[in-house]
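Support request from a user on the community tier.

User writes: "When I paste my C-alpha cells into the form, the page sometimes reloads and wipes my input. The last time it worked, I copied everything first. Here is what I submitted, just in case something in the input itself triggers the reload:"
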C-alpha cells in the first residue's frame, strides 16, 4: 500500500494539530492545514482545491447527506438548548439536582453513568450528557475541562461495546478484512465477523480502561497534569473556565439571563424526553426488519436522520411549552430559534474544517503511508502494539476514528492472518487494537469531530479540553500498551491481564497526582480537602 505523496502527506494534519495547540485557534489552524494540503495536492496556490474539499465535506460527490445531517442536528440542538435556557428549564433542573447531587463526586458519577446509558451513539451521548450536566457541574464548581473529559472519554469508548452504529460499522470492516485475506467467517475455524467482534472486546483495552479511568478519577477526586490546575482554579475562584478561554458555546454571554420567576422542571424534562424518544424510535424504525437481530437493526439504522428528527421534535416541544405557559412570545420564540443556531456556528465551522482536513488526508494518502510503514516492522509479539499505534497516529492525524477503521481493519486482519500462520488466533487481537488505537487517536486530536462536539456541548474551550484530557488518555494507553505487550510476549489470556491493568491504573492515578501536587506546591491533602470542603459547602 503506497501513498503517492509519501511523508509529505503528513504535513497538513500535523500542521493543523501543532498550530491548534500553540495558537489555541482551531479554526485558523484547521483552515491552514487544509490549505497546505491543497497546495501539495495541486502543486499551485491550492485555493480552488481547498474550497472544493470544504464544499465536499458538507455535500460529497457520492450524494451522502450524513455530514449535512450532523450539522442540522447540531444547529437544532443549539436551538433546543436555547429554549430550555430561556424558559428557565436549565435553572429548574440545576436547583432540583443540586439538592440531590450535593457533591462533586456524585455529579461526576451521574455524568459517567449517563454516558454509559447512552451507548448507542456517541454524538447523541455528548450532546445530551454535556448539555444536561453543564449547569449542575457549574453549580458545584467542577471545571468545564473536567466535564468535557468525563463526557468525551465515556461517549466513544462505550459506543464500541454496545448495540451501536460503531459496532455495526466495525463488523462490516471485519467482513472487508476477511475478503482482503481471502477467508470466510464461520469456516475452517475462522470466527464470523460478529463472533470476532465479541472475542475482540478484551483486547479493546484502551476503551475499557478509558471508561474505568473516568470512574477512578471521579471517585478518588485526584487529578494531575493541566486538569489539576483547572480543578483547583474552578474550586478556589468559581471560574469553571480559564481566564481568556473561548468556549465553543457560551450560553450565558449570548442568551442573557434565564427566566427565574418560576422555573419549572417540565421546561427541561419534556424537551429532553422528546429528543430521546424520537431519536430512539427513529433509529429503530429505520433499521427494523422482521428477521433482523438487534445488532443488524443497529447496523441498518439511520442514526443521523433519527438525531435530526429528535432535535427538531425537541425544538417543537420546547417552543410549544414556551407558548402554552406564556413564558415567551411568538417573536421571542423566533429570536430564540435564531440565537440557538448562532451559538453553534463556531462548532459547526470547526466540524466542517475537520471533515475537510479528513478529505485532505484521504486525497494525499496519509493513512496508507502510515499503514505501509507499520506493515514493515510487524512481528507476532509486536502485532498488537503496531496496530494500536498505527491506528492511533492515523486517527490523531486525520481526526476520524471511522476513517481509521476503514483504512486499517482491511489491512490488519490479513496481516494477523498471515503472521499467525493462517490461524484465526490473532484476528480478535487485530480487531480490538484497531478500535483502541482509533479512539485514543480521537481523544488526543484537536481535529477530531467527537472531541469538538464534546467541547461544544459542555461549553468548554476546545484546546483546553484537548490539553487536559491528553494526560489521562496517555496514561490509559500506557497501561493498555504494557498489557498488550505482555500478551504478545506470553500469550496470557487478556481476561487475566485486565484486573492487573485496573490495579496499575489506580496506582498511576495516585502516584501521578501525588507527584504533580507536590511539584506545583499543592499538597495531596489539600487536593483531597478541596473535595471534602466541596461536599460540606454544598451540604
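"...and here is what came back when it finally went through:"
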Amino acid at each position: 500500500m503506497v501513498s503517492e505523496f509519501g511523508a509529505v502527506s503528513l504535513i497538513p494534519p500535523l500542521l493543523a494539530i501543532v498550530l491548534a495547540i500553540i495558537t489555541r485557534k482551531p479554526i485558523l489552524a484547521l483552515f491552514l492545514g487544509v490549505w497546505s494540503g491543497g497546495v501539495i495536492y495541486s502543486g499551485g496556490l491550492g485555493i480552488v482545491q481547498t474550497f472544493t474539499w470544504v464544499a465536499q465535506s458538507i455535500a460529497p460527490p457520492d450524494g451522502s447527506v450524513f455530514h449535512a445531517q450532523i450539522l442540522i442536528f447540531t444547529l437544532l440542538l443549539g436551538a433546543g438548548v436555547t429554549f430550555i435556557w430561556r424558559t428557565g428549564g436549565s435553572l429548574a433542573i440545576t436547583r432540583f439536582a443540586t439538592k440531590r447531587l450535593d457533591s462533586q463526586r456524585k455529579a461526576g458519577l451521574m455524568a459517567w453513568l449517563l454516558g454509559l446509558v447512552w451507548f448507542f451513539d456517541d454524538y447523541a451521548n455528548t450532546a445530551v450528557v454535556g448539555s444536561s450536566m453543564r449547569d449542575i457541574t457549574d453549580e458545584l464548581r467542577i471545571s468545564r475541562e473536567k466535564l468535557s473529559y468525563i463526557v468525551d472519554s465515556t461517549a466513544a469508548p462505550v459506543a464500541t461495546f454496545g448495540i451501536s452504529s460503531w459496532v455495526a460499522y466495525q463488523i462490516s470492516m471485519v467482513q472487508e478484512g476477511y475478503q482482503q485475506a481471502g477467508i470466510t467467517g464461520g469456516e475452517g475455524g475462522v470466527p464470523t465477523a460478529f463472533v470476532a467482534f465479541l472475542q475482540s472486546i478484551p483486547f479493546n483495552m484502551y476503551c475499557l480502561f478509558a471508561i474505568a479511568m473516568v470512574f477512578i478519577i471521579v471517585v478518588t477526586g485526584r487529578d494531575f497534569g493541566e486538569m489539576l490546575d483547572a480543578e483547583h482554579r474552578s474550586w478556589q475562584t468559581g471560574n469553571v473556565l480559564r481566564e481568556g478561554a473561548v468556549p465553543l458555546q457560551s450560553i450565558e454571554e449570548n442568551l442573557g439571563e434565564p427566566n427565574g420567576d418560576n422555573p419549572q422542571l417540565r421546561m427541561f424534562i419534556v424537551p429532553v424526553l422528546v429528543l430521546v424518544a424520537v431519536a430512539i424510535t427513529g433509529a429503530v424504525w429505520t433499521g427494523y426488519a422482521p428477521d433482523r437481530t438487534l445488532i443488524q437493526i443497529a447496523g441498518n439504522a439511520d442514526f443521523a436522520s433519527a438525531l435530526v428528527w429528535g432535535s427538531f421534535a425537541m425544538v417543537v416541544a420546547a417552543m410549544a411549552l414556551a407558548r402554552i405557559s406564556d413564558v415567551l412570545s411568538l417573536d421571542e420564540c423566533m429570536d430564540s430559534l435564531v440565537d440557538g443556531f448562532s451559538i453553534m456556528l463556531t462548532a459547526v465551522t470547526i466540524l466542517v474544517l475537520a471533515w475537510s482536513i479528513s478529505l485532505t488526508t484521504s486525497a494525499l494518502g496519509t493513512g496508507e503511508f502510515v499503514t505501509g510503514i507499520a506493515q514493515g516492522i510487524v512481528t507476532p509479539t509486536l502485532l498488537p502494539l503496531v496496530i494500536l499505534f498505527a491506528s492511533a497516529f492515523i486517527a490523531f492525524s486525520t481526526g476520524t476514528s471511522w476513517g481509521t477503521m476503514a483504512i486499517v481493519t482491511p489491512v490488519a486482519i490479513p496481516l494477523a492472518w498471515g503472521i499467525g500462520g493462517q490461524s484465526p488466533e490473532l484476528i480478535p487481537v487485530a480487531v480490538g487494537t484497531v478500535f483502541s488505537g482509533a479512539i485514543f487517536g480521537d481523544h488526543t486530536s484537536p481535529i477530531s469531530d467527537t472531541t469538538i462536539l464534546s467541547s461544544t456541548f459542555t461549553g468548554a474551550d476546545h484546546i483546553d479540553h484537548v490539553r487536559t484530557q491528553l494526560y489521562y488518555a496517555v496514561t490509559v494507553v500506557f497501561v493498555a500498551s504494557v498489557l498488550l505487550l505482555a500478551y504478545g510476549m506470553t500469550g496470557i489470556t487478556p481476561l487475566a491481564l485486565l484486573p492487573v491493568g485496573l490495579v496499575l491504573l489506580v496506582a498511576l492515578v495516585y502516584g501521578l497526582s501525588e507527584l504533580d501536587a507536590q511539584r506545583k506546591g499543592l499538597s495531596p491533602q489539600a487536593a483531597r480537602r478541596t473535595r471534602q470542603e466541596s461536599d460540606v459547602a454544598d451540604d
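Agent notes: The reload is a front-end session timeout and is unrelated to the input. The radius of gyration is 23 Å. Confidence is low (pLDDT under 50) at residues 524-532, 534-539. Escalated to web team.
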